[in-house]
Amino acid sequence: MEAYITLLTNNNYASGALVLAHSLRTSQTTKQLAILITATVSRPIRDKLAAVFDSVIEIGEIDSYSTKNLALLGRPELGITLTKIHVFNQTQYSKVVFLDADTLVLRNIDDLFDTAANGSLDDEDRNKRFAASPDAGWPDCFNSGVFVCKPSFKDYTGLIQMASQQGTFDGGDQGLLNSYFSGWSRGEASNRLPFTYNTTPTASYSYAPAYQQYRDRLAVVHFIGNFKPWQWLRFADGAVFPRNTSSKDSIDLVQQWWNVFDNFVGGKV
Questions:
Q1: Strand partners, 134
Q2: Domain 2-193 has what CATH class?
Q3: Residue ranges with strand state E in the chain
């Protein structure tokens, strides 16, 4: 059995998780939808999640407590993202596509289950059973907001051990995963996903010509940073209110997020 998995460690990202699930349903995926949650997620939110996800799985929190490295990243709240390690322990699934709760799926991406991370669980090269897209800020690293993996207890315990012994260079899950799957940048083509599977519009840099060229090929949008789509103000007609630091392409993508929210979630989450 194969599944899309996301993670919710608090109620604040609930709108994101619900929109993500509905965007996957709209893409007519044939795969299971699962969400990992921690004890801090409230009962009303759990009920909403259960209405759209096939499985709601409670797991324990893992925090890096890496104050120094998180300060360097400028995101002190991301220590809790090490909880994402639990994805690799979901061995009830033969293959997983993980998506952060602040992503939006724009088209069917079930092809990832056939074309990415096809290495054997018995292979000594762990990089062959993992695939991800390059990070916009440092393309020799992958962005861990979207990845494909074959869950295995071996990798789960390996990540736990690395986290406890070496820590994570950015204080969050991305630094740890890049250290563990350190051969990613030199790996096979099937383990390096195109940027269109994890497009990260940023306030500091936007390559507008590329967005115009490839916008019809976008598969997954990842709203990185500490300001999320559900925090944007909107006009009475539903159009998002532009922010001073926002590019035209990022405004367009946030509007698409809100369109899914209005059509399938609505109300007050």
A1: 142
A2: alpha beta
A3: 2-8, 32-37, 55-58, 95-99, 103-105, 130-134, 142-149, 220-222
Question: Whole-prediction pTM value?
Answer: 0.92
Q: Residues 158-171: what's their mean pLDDT?
A: 84
**Domain locations along the chain:** 2-193
| DSSP designation for 263 | I
| Of 130, 129, 149, 132, nearest in space to 140 by CA | 132
The CA distance from 63 to 41, in Å, is 16
Task: Find out whether 161 and 107 touch, Cβ atoms under 8 Å.
Answer: no
Question: CA 192, 37, 230 angle in degrees (round to 5)?
Answer: 75
Minimal CA–CA distance to 5: which of 189, 116, 147? 147
3 state SS of 126: helix
Q: What tens digit of pLDDT does each residue of 206-262 get?
A: 677 887 888 889 999 999 988 899 999 999 999 999 877 667 778 889 999 999 999
Q: Is the pLDDT of residue 100 over 90?
A: yes
What's the rounded Cα separation, in Å, for the pair 193 and 83?
A: 23
Rounded Cα–Cα distance for residues 175 and 141 (Å): 9
Residue 165 burial by Cβ neighbours in a 10 Å radius (0-12, 13-18, 19+) = exposed
